[in-house]
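Hi R.,

Here's the chain you asked about this morning:
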Amino acid sequence: MYDVSTRKRALAMVAQGRSLNSVSRQTGISRAAIRSWQQRLEPLPRMASPDPGPPADDHAYAYLLGLYLGDGCISAHPRGGGYYLRIACADTWPGLIQECREAIIKVRPGIGVCTLQKEGCRMVTSYSRHWPSLFPQHGPGKKHERSIALTPRQQAVVDAHPWQFIRGLIHSDGCRITNGTTRLTAGERKRYEYPRYFFTNLSGDIVRLFTDTLDHVGVEWKQANKHNISIARKASVALMDTHVGPKY
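And the predicted structure, written out as tokens:
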């Protein structure tokens, strides 16, 4: 009862990350019908995409790489031929959402970018044939369940722009907080507050990329636990404040 264009439109909305409930409400098509179309769909053969060459802006790419490793994913279009890059950005940080959009455009000038509202966050989304070439860490399953390593070209970008890479990782899976403690001074208990940075990721490989880059720029860090890195030394926090800063 639905024509081909209607089916394609509904499936494209699902491919963009929309839930079946959301697509059903907007189109008036039942969830069962959309699900059956997904199950019957035979993907078209994928054409090998030519190497897109280096990113148009290495500075922006180093930041976007950090965001991708922290809160990004790449998924294939259900009909083949292209891929969606999605970066999850919390609604709390509108400046981060805008900066993510700008980084994508700088890396691939002229590309389209949209935001899809999810519960508590926005998915900054862009479609291209070339995302897996630009982010070869893409693969099946969750990042922390597979090996993550930078290519020589990516490592060269990170070496040239380490602070942007660190900033992307902090903006995705890190934070700047103020800790408080009390100390007994001259018989009087006083409260002290001090800032610190944290980075948390389930992937040991991504944590190691973060700490290796911190070492490169002279930031002292401690491993609070298996997945959590703490930066609390005054001089190191000052460096982080200069080059990274809190989310906004």
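The first strand starts at residue 72 and ends at 76.

Let me know if you need anything else.
M.
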